[in-house]
Amino acid sequence: MFVNQVRSVVVPKECTRQSMTIIRYFFTFLTFIAANSFFHFLGIEGTAIMTTGRNILLFAILLLSLTFLVRRNRFRLNQKFGFRLVFIIYIFLFFSISLFGCCLRTYFLSHFGLYLLDVFSFFVVLSVGSGGGQPLPLPGPSNPSNSSSEDSFELQVLSEPWPVTHNVGYETSLRNRFLTLENENSPFLLSEERGENWAEVKTQLDNCPSQREYNRLLEFENRDLRIRELRHSCYSQFQLLFTDHPALAENADSNPQEALLDFFEEKRDELDREGGNVLVKDLRELRFLEQLSDDLQIYGINSVYINIIFGR
């Protein structure tokens, strides 16, 4: 009789413990699904805001602080407010951690996705070329007509292009950078229509015949956009100098804005004459624009480039 009483007490506790474990994992899974759905619901612009390096760092600090406080005071909260509040706080923490994971994943894909895709493509090609590590079957006797048809079918399959994997995070970053320049009415964009610049780039990316060509074009567009951003940054610094020193524009030999645009084009032609492929020429201009931007920030109106451009 005593044994039966013990069993009647122990079994419900074990059942309760198992039920709580199942509920815990079930709600954790639901929270993960909800966080992913919420992240996709943010859209392109919301995702771009959430996945900036600064916002991710702030999110991580806030999440670590909140986790530390909850872990330290969970027993006190349970005694004072009950299990329900503690359970809701834990669900919120799981949701925040899952959302942070989505942001971190998108951030790394947008910055290192090109390199990961190159490595992945290399291993896929290596695996296909080696037969996945398995020995190829020996050819057996077969009908010549069937053999030729099978060979032609296999060649047709191998000649078909592999589907291109798009780097969504990287494309989102490019799109928002284009929008930033459009909002600032940058004169260094090819089109003045809002959204037209990114639409043209997106069309080219969607029509890439291979993953290698897609990666190459994505890298080129990122580099080209960086040049436009640096040109616009230097242009904006010159505009501030004109505002702070009106005499600078008045004493210029020509229209200051036109002189700046001509200077950038002439400098690019000068750098191109030094030789090299497109990558080398772009990197050369990037270094020059960074040097120009630093010189304007340090010396301002006394920058040597003021004399070069406006002939003071």
Task: Describe the fold and architecture.
It is a single chain. The protein is mainly α. The chain has 2 domains: 2-122; 168-310, no CATH class. It has helices spanning 2-41, 43-50, 53-81, 83-129, 144-159, 168-183, 196-206, 211-244, 246-250, 256-272, 278-299, 304-310. α4 crosses α8. The model is unreliable at 1-11 and 120-142 (pLDDT under 50). Keywords: Membrane, Mitochondrion, Transmembrane, Transmembrane helix. The chain crosses the membrane at residues 22-42, 48-69, 81-101.
Order of helices and strands: HHHHHHHHHHHH
Individual helix count: 12
Largest sheet: none
The low-pLDDT segments are 1-11, 120-142
Structural class determined from secondary elements: mainly alpha
Range of helix content: over 70%
Query: Strand share of the residues?
Result: under 5%
Distance N to C terminus = 108 Å
| Average pLDDT level | 76
The tally of strands reads 0
Backbone shape: elongated
Radius of gyration: 30 Å
Number of domains: 2
Core attributes:
2 domains, 312 residues, 12 helices, elongated
Short description:
The chain has 312 residues and is an all-alpha fold.
Question: What's the layout of helices and strands?
Answer:
Layout: H1 2-41, H2 43-50, H3 53-81, H4 83-129, H5 144-159, H6 168-183, H7 196-206, H8 211-244, H9 246-250, H10 256-272, H11 278-299, H12 304-310
Helix pairs in contact: 1-4, 2-6, 3-4, 4-6, 4-8, 6-8, 7-8, 8-10, 8-11
